[in-house]
Task: structure prediction
Amino acid sequence: MTATSSAALPEAIGPAAAPRRWGAPLWVGFLLIVLAFLVIYPLLMLLFGALSDSNPVVDGFGKFNPSLEHFINVLGNENVHYAFFNALAACGGGTLLAVAIGLAFSWIVVRTNTPFKRFIAGASMIPLFVPPLVAGVAWSILGSPKTGLINTVFKWIGIDFRIDFYSLSGLIVVFGIYYAPYVYMFTASALQNMDPSLEEASEVSGASALTTIFTVTFPLIAPAILAGSLLSFVVMLGIYGVPAALGAPANISVLTTYIFKLTAWAPPLYNTAAAVAILLMMVTAILVWAQQRVLSGKSYATVAGKAFRPRALNLGPWRWFTFGLAVVYLFVVVVLPTLALIIAAFRKFLFIKNFDALFDMKAYGLSHFNSVFDNPLTMLSIWNTLKVGVITALIGGVLAFAIGYTVYRTQVAGRRSIDLLSTIPVAIPGLVVGVAYLWAWIGLPGGLYGTIWILALAFVARFIPDTVKALSTSFMQIHRELEEAAWICGRGLLGTIATIMLPLARPGLVASMTLLFVLAVRELGSSLFLYTSDTTVMAVLLLDYYEGGNVGKTAAFSLVQTLILAVLLGMTNWLSRGAAQSSARVG
Amino acid sequence: MKRRTMMAGLAGAAASWTLPAAAQDEFGSKELIAAAEKEGSLTYYTANFAEVEQEVIKAFNKRFPKIKVSMVRAPGGQLITRIKTEAAAGKLAADVVDHSDRGLMNSLSDLFQDYTPPNASDYRPDALVSPKLWPGVTLGWAIAYNTQLVKNAPKTWMDLTKPEYKDKQIGQVVGPSGGTTWTRIMFERQVLGEDYWKKQAAVGPALYPSGAPLSDALVRGEVSIAPLLYNIIYTKIVDGAPAEAIFAPEGVPIIPYADGITKTSKSPNASRLFMNWRLSKEGQAFAIKNLGNITSMKEPPAFPKGWDPKAIKVWVPKFDEFEKLRAPWLEEWNKTYGYRQ
Result:
């Protein structure tokens, strides 16, 4: 498993090495310029805002009077402390739950002979398509202490117990079940690509299946587990919709809802919001640093040049138990909220006096769908969203591949800076980054502002970290010896990428572009500042419906959005599977 | 389906308003109308609810079908930031801006051109903060309740301090949520008494970040009673929701918006015509009857349901106090209601 000395390789490559000598710095420089434009420039605007009272576009840089006042106020404000503590508790608890669920699921799907695995794998990704606001609304319909459907059912059965999702534990549960797919994505591909001979060795040495899982399997995919939990934690930190719907009624604020208040109220306190955002970024920076410390100096390469077949553990009759677990999870995370949304979307009003009222068919109708499709903005927003999503996925996918390859597969100077720059945006909450993009890019020459391209640019920038990290596990797992083999056979760098890296990393690339597409479709914070009447997107319209106080229309429109996403993702999945099969035949 | 019937009703109402030719001057001269139709479009920035404003645009288009109105909607604070930034970059796309916060709009008055509607003298002077900005929208506070849950409905603001409504039966929008709520809590303290907040907080209301989710919570039965802007609950009542709303005899706090036409407008004539129509008797009557608005006109062209003009007085905050008292009073409000801002 140890890598052959790669230091000797550049000489060995001979002719191919010459252009790379000046090519590498040029390439790194190019990537750094792109990232500076996408990340550093808006970030400077944000810092500028946090350190002053002015709007850089309105007042110009001339009026910049730096002061730490906002930071000092924010750090001394007990409401910020309270929101900070809540955010850490909700996201920390949520992450633990997400890791437990995601890991269990990836193991069930990849490593066992549980029945209907493909179906489980597909269905367990559904929470990812659901915008957080919709998840929050669905769970408030289900889990409200007073009117929640679950409590209505309990009452009907005669159970005295009442659940209350308007609480910190409610937030943790919803975060945990909705962000488990992040962990799943990372760990499933790692398990898939892992050489089972390591586990076989453990079992031959007499270890039980359970011991093998905890001493060999999980430690080997530790980078994937860590990356998945870090990403899900940080993403949770930036989520607005769930705590807005579930935390607000119980007066539980987290950092994002606090920031939203600062930006939405009149007068808006962007400069304070920027200071809170920078606080959030510091937390993330510490976590990323800790992750790198833990992983540094260890090799996790498990995909080597040797052929293997991922093996499935025969669970015997226990396979019905794992199947049952999967069904329960899917019921809780897919069926229940969808049912809640369907009831909300088709019911004229969500006043449900008792369980029997739920079946009063007179209370149902298509009125919410009619009014959603009466709205001329609906079709426009769907069309715009699809365009922006595709552009974002294509540009972002290419950029993430370039960054990922440079960071994880080369030794060029400057790759650490690239890694750092491409990780930063994950830490900036969308609502604040939106205004940073507006400040940064409105003055650009040409007609960028007011087109869908500026939205796509913002989404690419905002989701570079998610895309690169989703790709990184694919890159980290491909052993150098495969590339080295191509070099030795006389392939140049680009040839190696085209014949080795691209095909091997393709499942990861397709997955991360799909993720990017989904994230772009859902993204609200940065859209709100950059859309115009011609470029309105679905997320903005969804917020309009929610803010307009109409759960019925919000639910109807989210069902429409979910359906569109499901159809598109099904198509992508089918296409990529077809492509994979044809390339497998060629190979 | 109800909504469609409502819209059909609107079309009928609009047709019946067709005025004699001379009265067309209510909206502007022939020349203005011709120039506006030649421009053919305008961009409208609003902080009001998108759906509500779409109804306004539809009604405007019934009278002036040749003028296309494109709308951009964002929450109040975010809309202001966007306007400021766009204007500074020389890319302000708005022709007309509609905003509830008179103070913030007043501070941006340099961005707006001189404008006076033909019926300027019909408006209450205390609803105006700048000669350039006009209350195209005026909203008012009502007390709403869920008819299925409340046996003994409140009739006055003072009723909301009664112990029988304790333990989160009442929902409240938090004080710092914006200019509209600030107007209401200022009214409570200045008109209903220094200790009104304390008495009301003692009942233990549930706190909501803004009015629209609260109106939804009321319909769902999460809360039974809530002070709400009438327009938020009105369309739901019309559609058949289990809710009702009353105007209290102690007074109805109203919020006149501040709307203006930008200096950089590329369709100044269409914008004028749009503003003229919204501020006209026809535009205001439409908003009162169909959207649940109130009006800042001295003599309202229509009244909301259950509004007795002899018994109910509107209450407009004094603008200087509105600005000056805001920060210290909100801090006290937060303390009284135990709200963490």
